[in-house]
Amino acid sequence: MSLLNSKELAKELRVAQGYICAMKAWNPPYVMKYAGRDTLAGAMEWLEAHPDFRSTGYHRRRPLQRRKRQRESKKIQLADGHPIGKE
Predict the structure, then answer these.
(1) CB-CB contact of 38 with 4 (8 Å)
(2) Which residues contact 40 (CB under 8 A, 6 or more apart)?
(3) Using CA atoms, how far apart are residues 66 and 87, in angstroms rounded to an integer?
(4) What burial class does residue 69 get, using C-beta atoms within 10 Å of its C-beta: 0-12 exposed, 13-18 middle, 19+ buried?
(5) Which of 33, 8, 21, 11 is nearest to 61 (CA)?
(6) What are the φ/ψ torsions at residue 77 (nearest 5 degrees)?
(7) Half-sphere exposure of residue 8, counting CA atoms within 13 Å on the CB side?
């Protein structure tokens, strides 16, 4: 049993490292059981249990969430029209 980090696991599975990141963000998430490391068998077991997993769109979601937070923070203003935190 050899423990692999995300980069090594991606190399063994012959996928990009972003694929492993997408696995971790999936619901239910792929959890690396040994302090950020896991075995190849553990990753294969998770992939077999989640045949509908796709990494498509994972990288596009994150910037959209960031922009949404930025828009919401701009909406918060004082009664005089100045944003909170600026004088």
Answers:
(1) yes
(2) 2, 4, 9, 12, 13
(3) 25
(4) exposed
(5) 21
(6) -140, 155
(7) 10
Beta bridge partners of residue 76, listed in sequence order: none
Q: Which of these, 69, 18, 75, 19, lies nearest to 47 by C-alpha position?
A: 19
Q: In order along the chain (87 residues), what is the average pLDDT of each group of 10 residues?
A: 88 91 83 84 90 75 59 59 56
Tokens standing for 83? Answer: 């944003």
Name residue 41's amino acid: A
List of long-range contacts for 66-72, beta carbons under 8 Å, 24+ apart: none
> What is the length of the chain?
87
Contact status, residue 30 vs residue 15, Cβ threshold 8 Å:
no
Q: What is residue 48's predicted lDDT score, i.e. its pLDDT?
A: 92
Among residues 13, 15, 43, 41, which one has the least CA distance to residue 31?
A: 43
